[in-house]
Amino acid sequence: MTERTLVLVKPDGVARGLVGEVISRIERKGYRISAMEMRTLDRATAEEHYGEHREKPFFAELVDFITGGPLVAMVVEGNEVVVGVRTLMGVTNPIEAAPGSMRGDFCTLVGENLVHGSDSNASAAKETALFFPTH
After folding, report:
1. Which residue, 87, 103, 116, 134, could crosslink 94 as a Cys pair with Cβ 3.0–4.6 Å?
2. pTM assigned to the model
3. Which residue of the set 49, 53, 116, 135 is catalytic?
4. Which residue ranges make up each domain of the chain?
């Protein structure tokens, strides 16, 4: 069964020229990118995207970071794509991320961890609708 998920190459990944690397890893795994756009995220969308963290002390920092420069948003499709993409990305803390994962290979800071991927099918549905409402 084909699933869909949202993948973001965050502003740090765009600034470091790693968009192609992220796309390449996704495609080499066998997943398909069905929508993609580079844009600078507006504050309202960022606040909705990170809404579950609204009451946490790092919420403002998250929103400032994700709106601080261009990002690349993608809808990625494939078999068990939510789990598969998160495995490709590696765990949130890049110091704990396995070598060979995107975060394990390219990141050292939790706050600048290159990519976002939906953490469940429910989140994927919500997030893809937020970023690509007509897709």
Report:
1. 103
2. 0.94
3. 116
4. 2-131
